[in-house]
Amino acid sequence: MTSIEAHVQQPYKYGFVTDIESEVVPAGLSEDVIRLISGKKGEPEWMLDWRLKAYRNWLKMQEPHWPNVKYGPIDYQAISYYAAPKQQPKLDSLDQVDPKLVATFEKLGIPIEEQKRLTGVAVDAVFDSVSVATTFQAELAKYGVIFCPISQAIREHPDLVQQYIGTVVPYNDNFFAALNSAVFTDGSFVYVPNGVRCPLELSTYFRINASSTGQFERTLIIAEEGSYVSYLEGCSAPMRDENQLHAAVVELVALDRATIKYSTIQNWYPGDEEGRGGIYNFVTKRGKCAGTNSKISWTQVETGSAITWKYPGCILQGDNSIGEFYSVAVTSHRQQADTGTKMIHLGRNTRSTIVSKGISAGRGQNTYRGLVKIMKGAEGARNYSQCDSMLIGDKCGAHTFPYIDVRNSTAIMEHEASTSKIGEDQIFYLRQRGLSAEDAVSMIVNGFCKEVFKELPMEFAVEATRLLGISLEGSVG
Amino acid sequence: MKKGKALLEVKGLRVAVAGNEILKGVDLTIRDGEVHAIMGPNGSGKSTLAQVLAGHPAYTVLAGTAQYEGKDLLDMKPEERARAGVFLAFQYPVEVRGITNSYFLRSALNALRRERGEPELDPIDFLQVLEAKLKSIGWDDSMMNRPVNEGFSGGEKKRNEILQLAVLEPRLAILDETDSGLDIDALRTVAEAVNQLRNPKRAFLIVTHYQRLLNYITPDVVHVLADGRIVRSGGPELAQELEAKGYDWLRDGVMVS
């Protein structure tokens, strides 16, 4: 063990369990369970029908095994698909929220009480299968911005939900998206009307608490013509020896001249040093630049989860639309990540930018997988891709699978890739200038990720930097 | 000349890297204010001596001691040595992507200031400290906004090392082949900067293969390192003798002695 490895390992900081009485639906998946979930949410008939359609499709689908990750079989009948704290919050008043839940979110750095709220950020706090509080709803409503749990949106804004749900990620898109479509519980709904620049950062925090459950949230963001919204999601879960499944779906729709900026700081429990426990993070995220001159920008900082499988992508349908993907993925200990993006160019003069930074430490395995597809009609399309991998130690791995499919000869594609290794020489250089080994690693890694971090909303960039420092602590050799 | 206090005292130092013994018993005493040059053929162990004094983890000390300001230098971590005033100008300075030269140097200076119980400098105060030092190596602050050593030419990297030396103001500055890869103008600038930094409270250990740097920096003592041992020590004239005769005569001398 080198001097750097010898540093004290900081345990996963968010691994506590909230002791709260929960209503947990017995494990297992069936049409009855889906009816039960739909009933609990007070959903209209069409929503239940959509769920059942998804479920019946899912039954015929196979779990994908093409990702570059290894895990044992998942028993979908051993998972509980609904867990909620017993005292249901009344959504019209935050005073009704169970103090234990308020304390939980406070401990996670997400204060939901009025006097402690983060300024400039509206938060939807999701605990297991339900949203427990959404701040600043009334203030946002003054601008016509709807920000609420998706279950509330299904009840209160059914037309909007029905018009857009499944239009970007269809219910039969893939195995995990189909599962989500059948059983999704909460998640956020955002609607920004014509010409409105959303005055606050919108943020959802997902917390898994109950054991033997899965979390299946669904988020839908609609940005009308000429609007702008910046949204950020964060998450965490208790430390447990069992693996828990998290299969989310996120759909974004940007109409003419609209911009959606979607940022993720993913900090699910990653499992222990030996790879016991941790979240399986199997997620489908996709945005559609439906309008001309629209823009969707994904920024993700992935430090948690035992296994990550996600490819936030953009369908660039509108002419001159822009898709961006900025990613930092860290795999430490025995974490595995297979992540990247899909940029589908349909419209003319569409542009996409991909900047991916993979960091592997310990026995972590980090795979970048990205698709850039230029369709026939995408005259003048451009893509720039940059994939950088950093290795810390000699037992980890970095892999890159770029897929490029160009069907229009006017397209311009650029792809750059690099692999570097943090070596003892690099760390020694910084230590020789008086920096501690931890500060040296943190400086090197932060410098490596700078192009991505600068895309994060200011309020969260600091958090991301800190998170990265923690997840790599003790892993340099 | 009245001799200063011993700043560094190395005795019987034996060092191995990857199982090969490189230094086979080095004795060296450097006093406050002195400039020592270590010369020697390739593979003689010059750089090993520089690296091991700075605490590079790849080197294993087999035997011997090194006292710095009366403390056991070999027992200190690299950053502890740096904070105690030991500075190594690297032969191959490392690049740090995405971190500006200015941020890096300020972080380093603040690490030293913390150790000394001095307040940390904010970017504006730091700029003031930096300005005069930049001038001494003939730079403007455009170099400070570039990532550390990234895309720097060989000469720029070496100047950057000297800039760091000037800002961090060590008590013992070790220059590891700082002259290699420098053209004559750069060599002169670097030498002048070093001469400006000479003072009774600061000692230098200059590791070099060639004598040419010593045309500009006159050392107090010249040592010749061959096959892991200091085989000869003398005044500045020894450097000139080596330049004229090369190293071979020494090697022969070692063999017969």
Task: Describe, in plain words, how this protein is organized in 3D.
- By secondary structure, chain A is of the alpha/beta class.
- In chain A, a hairpin with a 2-residue loop joins β3 (121-127) and β4.
- Helices cover 22% and strands 35% of the residues of chain A.
- In chain A, α5 packs across α6 and α8 (424-432) crosses α9.
- Chain A is built from ten helices and 23 strands.
- Chain B has 257 residues and is α/β, with parallel strands linked by helices.
- Chain B has a single domain (6-256), classed as P-loop containing nucleotide triphosphate hydrolases (Rossmann fold), CATH 3.40.50.300.
- Helix content of chain B is 35%, strand content 29%.
- Chain B is built from eight helices and twelve strands.
- Chain B starts with 5 loop residues before the first strand and ends with a helix.
- Classes of the chains: A alpha/beta (477), B alpha/beta (257).
- Chain A binds chain B through residues 2-3, 424-426, 428-437, 439, 443-444, 446-451, and chain B through 54-58, 77-79, 81-83, 87-88, 90, 92-94, 96-99, 104, 107-109, 111-112, 115, 147, 164, 168.
